[in-house]
Amino acid sequence: MAILEELLKSPDQSVRLKAALAAGTYPNLDHIEVLIRQCASETDFFVRDTLSWALMRQDRPTVVQRLIPELKSVNPQSRSQALHTLSKIGDKENYSLITAELLLDADDFVASTAWRSASVLVPDADKPALVEILISQLGRGDSDTQFGLTRFLCAIGQPIVAPLMHAAQSAEETVRTQAEFTLIRYQELRLEESKKSSSRGESFNT
């Protein structure tokens, strides 16, 4: 554990990356605390992503329990990285950990990460409630934040249509514009998927 901690403190990004890769390749309960602490301060995107991968390779129930306090951390990076790791783990039973407080987080990056993680983990029965919260965030933030929200809404599927049609009548221009754009994007994605399905069917029949 001490060696891993020392390597993750290296100023060399490649050293930190290799250390995270090694920690995931050779799982060990002692790695979990070190990896989570590094998530809170790691400056490099690729290393952070590898840290989440390494955590995903550890004992998952233990990792999830240790992530719960991180979701409530005052450090935005701790919150966002914990959410990202939950999405990597991919267990829908962890959906309840993504609270409304996180979905409405004051930090745009944390909120956006919560939206993405929720769209991955949400069970079918919880989709309408999630859509209601996400619809309330239409028009929020910069163009990247808004495009992300559109993408995560589209990932949820059919339950977004009626709420978006209602939002498209909003008196608030940014809300109305994004709702309209999201509806168009959703229809485009459905059409693309339909074409792919038809193409697969034709290939199967030939």
What does this structure look like?
It is a single chain. The protein is mainly alpha-helical. It folds into two domains: 1-99, Alpha Horseshoe (Leucine-rich Repeat Variant); 122-206, Leucine-rich Repeat Variant (Alpha Horseshoe). The protein contains twelve helices and no strands. It has helices spanning 2-8, 13-25, 29-39, 45-56, 60-70, 76-89, 100-103, 108-121, 127-135, 143-156, 161-167, 173-205. The protein is elongated.
Backbone structural class: mainly alpha
- β-strand percent reads under 5%
* Integer-rounded radius of gyration: 20 Å
End-to-end C-alpha gap: 57 Å
Element order: H for helix, E for strand = HHHHHHHHHHHH
CATH class type of the largest domain: Mainly Alpha
Describe the biggest sheet? none
- Outline the low-pLDDT stretches: none
Instruction: Calculate the mean pLDDT score and round it.
Output: 94
Number of domains: 2
Note the total helix count: 12
- What is the global morphology? elongated
CATH A-level architecture of the largest domain? Alpha Horseshoe
Query: CATH homologous superfamily of the largest domain, by name?
Result: Leucine-rich Repeat Variant
Number of DSSP E strands: 0
What is the subunit arrangement here? single chain
SSE inventory with pairings:
Blueprint: H1 2-8, H2 13-25, H3 29-39, H4 45-56, H5 60-70, H6 76-89, H7 100-103, H8 108-121, H9 127-135, H10 143-156, H11 161-167, H12 173-205
Helix pairs in contact: 2-4, 3-4, 3-5, 4-6, 5-6, 6-8, 8-10, 10-12, 11-12
